[in-house]
Write a structure and sequence with these properties.
By secondary structure, the protein is an alpha/beta fold. It has one domain: Rossmann fold (3-Layer(aba) Sandwich), CATH 3.40.50.960. About 45% of the residues lie in helices and about 15% in strands. The structure holds ligand DLZ. Its EC number is 2.5.1.78.
Length: about 170
């Protein structure tokens, strides 16, 4: 076999737990992060993860735009405001919903995630669902820590989807 036939697609050496990514080049891309103040301690770790994922894809710090909102319910509308600026290649919405004793959790989780999906489909801008719906704070912590920090995947997924979009335009 020739060298060419031997060569494998550049698949993630940068894998975190559970998923691998192709080599991604986010140089020059602008990415929005919209996050909540509810459950800020875990949300901040996820945000750090997302920034780290973006950095691994060569996204410059100055090209990361951040909005903050009170809770996960507010995420879709704030993401829409950001999408309307037409100045971002992808948006990462980050929130943590912890199930309480009422139905509030289910209402917010389902409505917010559906709205984020619709926003992406309507605008064509990749909108990442970074809402963790957990039954306990410990579950959320575990998904915001070390090689299981889901924020890192969201950062890389944002660039992968923005790259895919760019190849379609
Ligand atoms: C009200 C509420 C509750 C009970 N729990 C959470 C939560 O766990 N995570 C979260 O992001 N937001 C929560 N909120 C706030 C709502 O998302 C929203 O801010 C309010 O209902 C006001 O619209």
């Amino acid at each position: 076999l020739s060298d060419k036939q031997h060569s494998v697609p550049a698949v993630a050496q940068q894998a975190t737990k559970g998923i691998s990514f192709p080599q991604l080049d986010g140089k020059g891309m602008r990415v929005g992060i919209v996050s909540t103040r509810w459950n800020a301690e875990v949300v901040n770790k996820l945000k750090d993860g997302a920034r780290a994922g973006l950095k691994e894809c060569q996204v410059e710090d100055s090209n990361v735009v951040e909005f903050e909102v009170p809770g996960s319910w507010e995420l879709p509308l704030a993401c829409r405001y950001m999408a309307q600026t037409q100045k971002v290649d992808a948006i990462i919405a980050i929130g943590v919903l912890v199930k309480g004793e009422t139905d509030h959790y289910d209402m917010i989780k389902d409505a917010a995630t559906d709205a984020l999906m619709m926003l992406g489909l309507e605008t064509g801008i990749p909108v990442l669902n970074g809402i963790l719906g957990c039954h306990t704070m410990e579950q959320a912590e575990a998904r915001a820590t070390g090689d299981n920090n889901h924020g890192v995947w969201w950062g890389k997924t944002a660039i992968e989807m923005a790259t895919l979009r760019a190849t379609q335009m």
